[in-house]
Amino acid sequence: MKITFIGAVGTVTGSKFLVESGRTRVLVDCGLFQGLKQLRRRNWQPLPVRAGDIDAILLSHAHLDHSGYLPVLVRDGLLGPIYCTPPTKALCQLLLPDSGSIQEEDARYATRKKTASHHPALPLYTADDARATLPHMETRRFDEPLEIGDLSVRFAPAGHILGAACVEVRDEHGAVLFSGDLGRSDDVLMQPPRAPGDVDWIVMESTYGDRSHGERDPVEAIAEIVRRTTERRGVVLMPSFAVGRAQALLYCLHSAFEQGLCPRIPVYVNSPMATNVTDLYQDFHEYHRLRDDECSQVCDVAEFVRSVDESRRLAERRGPLVIVSASGMATGGRVLHHLRALAPEPENTIVLPGFQAAGTRGADIAAGASSVKIYGHWVPIRAEVVQLDLLSAHADREDLLGWLQSAARAPRRVFLVHGEPVAADSLRLAVKDRLGYEPHIPEYLESVELD
What we know:
This protein is of the alpha/beta class and about 450 residues long. About 30% of the residues lie in helices and about 20% in strands. The chain is built from 14 helices and 21 strands. It has helices at about 35-40, 65, 70-75, 85-115, 125-135, 220-230, 245-260, 270-285, 290-300, 310-315, 335-340, 360-365, 395-405, 420-435; strands at about 1-5, 15-20, 25-30, 55-60, 80-85, 135-140, 145-150, 150-155, 165-170, 175-180, 200-205, 235-240, 265-270, 305, 320-325, 350, 370-375, 375-380, 385, 415, 445-450. The strands form four sheets. The protein has a seven-stranded mixed β-sheet. Strands 7-8-9-10-11-20 form a six-stranded mixed β-sheet, covered by helices on one side. A six-stranded parallel β-sheet has the order 14-13-15-12-16-19. α4 (about 85-115) runs antiparallel to α5 (about 125-135), α6 (about 220-230) packs across α7 (about 245-260) and α8 runs antiparallel to α9. The mean pLDDT is about 95.
């Protein structure tokens, strides 16, 4: 068996791993590169394998840095199926067409502003390309066996978000486990990831390999932010990923209100995507911690903004109130309108509830930028800024080490991916120190024979 690391090396995005055994080729994950321009350029470069030569794609979960390149491969000739869990398929039915629409809108903007090297600017793919991808998707539940040519495949719970899976790929020589994105042991919504079974090699994420989330209760932390912002009559703006993060924030706000930890103020979810995703948490309740009645109560804590007119009216409102809006790294979406209106006012609070990739507005704001560019204009940042890693859906350093240590036996080799260089190297040293063997950090497009 051979693995080629096509993405998520030296960065947290662009997850793609080509696995070859005999005549069988599968791609584990098929994500977009995001963040820095030199990374995003890779989305336009051809893969080292033709789309038509890939027998199947194994999708760990629905986040775009793992799924967002699928429409390109289908458009370019992918014939084989895309396997994933049922919630992952349901999420992709929402995320991928939306991503295509954003690609088209970005291209139209670049054409108008003449900022692209080609005229007219072209989208990486369209919403129609994304919709054409969906019939290729086939579902498998956790532990349901799957045979693809010379390979046997199994999905196992990874925590992280709804339907997220670790992907075990086995041939006659051994088994490799791809962690995907691992969830936390104490996530407010998701069950912890299942321990690795009897596998020979592990390809493991390292996003938080150099840090811990801390032990503070996220409900108490959010309640404190709401209290002090309410005292200033301000607005709490929470840029949030539509999948997972928005629902965790609603859970924390609901809990804070119910426990009387802060005033019960209006909460608005201004993200059509987050609204639809929240509905899926009620449809797939067996994939998360909450009971049906708890899930309904959490959803009822907020008013969901559905129309553009409602969004515009919300942008004119003043506090105290809470707005949860996508995107989570402030790269696009309705949150930009709220940032433009709220960031210049010191009574407001911008809460960044998770990892902010280099090159994004969220990262600039977290780093203390005095202003950020939104729709061609520089917007001053005078609002209070709070980076809150307590709600990250990723396992932290201790969780990663604990998960690896819980394997049925020591693997022959571990590969660290999906992390910035400092995070990956820090985790490498920690594994070497604690577990007595040294993981390998692959290079971009490196191929490794597993033996």
